[in-house]
Each structure stands twice: as C-alpha cells, then as structure tokens.
Design goal:
By secondary structure, this protein is mainly beta. The protein contains no helices and 6 strands. It comes from Nocardioides cavernaquae.
C-alpha cells in the first residue's frame, strides 16, 4: 500500500504554462496531476495509453472527435489511447487526477 501525496491537487503552473507531475509509475499504470490555469490552453497531444481523468478542481469543456462535455469537480472521463482530446474554455483553474494504463509513454514507439 502507498498513499500518493499531492495527487489531484492544484499547483500553479510556472510562467502561465500547464503543469504535469507524475506521482506514481509501475509497468501497468501511472498516476499524475495535470493543471491548466483559468483561461489557459491545453496543448497536449494524443497519448499511446488509455487514460482516465478525475476533475478535482475547476471547470472546463473537454472536446473529442465524438463530442464535447462540460466538466467540473467529480467528473470522471475516459479517453482511449490515440484519441485526440483537448480541454477548452477553462473558466476556473483546472486540476485533473490522471491515471494511465499502462504507464504513461510506455507504448510509445522506440526511436532506435
């Protein structure tokens, strides 16, 4: 058992950029926090792993090719590997607990 300190807690990004902090990594999953300030832009690219977001703070809209939804604290979102997605209209500082399965980046192509 391990308590994961700071997971899902808002951290002001430095220099108005988004903030990503990984808190736990095993071969099968990773857990982190992604923060976007109010009015900020989500600049992420699709991931090679399945992903679950849990909104712990803030409000925004998530947009995917399949549609859009307003999110708020308590919202839980599943994004399959490879799906384009973006948080827009961030009206309040947004903190997201993020769970990747398998671990973030572990399915990325080996550049060698």
């Amino acid at each position: 058992m391990q308590l994961i300190e700071g997971a899902g807690v808002w951290t002001p990004p430095s220099e108005a950029e988004n903030d990503w902090a990984e808190h736990l990594r095993t071969p099968d999953l990773s857990v982190g926090t992604y923060c976007i300030p109010a009015g900020g832009l989500d600049d992420q690219s699709p991931h090679t792993e399945d992903e679950i977001y849990v909104v712990t703070q803030g409000r925004a809209t998530i947009v995917t090719p399949g549609g859009s939804a307003e999110v708020e604290p308590g919202s839980v979102i599943f994004v399959p590997a490879g799906e384009v997605h973006r948080f827009i209209d961030v009206t309040e500082d947004l903190a997201l607990l993020v769970v990747f399965g398998p671990a973030y980046g572990s399915r990325a192509a080996n550049p060698n």
